[in-house]
Amino acid sequence: MKKIIYIALISVIFSLTANAEQRLEKFTNGQFVFPEHDLTINVEIAKSKKQRALGLMFREQLVANKGMLFIFEEEAIQRVWMKNTLIPLDIIFISAEANIISIFKNIQPCRHNPCAIYSSNQKAKYMLEVNAGFVADKSIAVAEKIRFSSF
Q1: Is 3 a domain residue?
Q2: How far is 18 from 26, CA to CA, in rounded Å?
Q3: What is the pLDDT of residues 85-103, one digit of tens each?
Q4: Where does residue 14 fall: left (phi above 0), alpha (psi -120 to 50 degrees), or beta otherwise?
Q5: Residue 60: domain span
């Protein structure tokens, strides 16, 4: 019995350590530009698998006019869900040519399994997550061209 408890305790410690390491991986910062709106926002850039898996999970807020840009290894139909995400978001999928191809507005956190999956309607290389209401408030639309840079 003691051996089972010991193994369970080690498993829990390992899991907590792995989660902490995942959260400690630093995101690169960058700027995301919507030229048609003369609008620039600061973004955290998630480019590794660990960073993309973590994304904005467990965050209780996202500062206004900030977001997270996900850079995928290849252009494909991209999918996202809101599991462990605590704040509502707008999701913008972007092609390798830097054109907005899909937008999901006011996506609510997933409170119960199974969580809905949101897919780009065309192949995407990037995904931007911003606070819910951003897309409507700034009149962002499909087919717009964007720019971004990291620093």
Answers
A1: no
A2: 15
A3: 999 999 999 999 999 999 9
A4: alpha
A5: 26-150
Rounded average pLDDT over 26-53? 93
Whole-number percent of the chain with pLDDT over 70:
83
Residue 21 has pLDDT above 90, yes or no: no
Question: How many domains are there within the chain?
Answer: 1
d(CA 104, CA 46): 19
- Please check whether residue 20 lies inside any domain of the structure: no
User: From CA 110, how far away is CA 63, in angstroms rounded?
Assistant: 21
How long a stretch of residues is the chain?
Answer: 151
Which two three-digit tokens encode residue 100?
Answer: 């907005």
Whether residue 11 is contained in a domain is answered as no
Query: Per the domain annotation, does 12 fall within a domain?
Result: no
pTM of the prediction?
Answer: 0.81
- In the block, tokens 């850039």 appear at 45
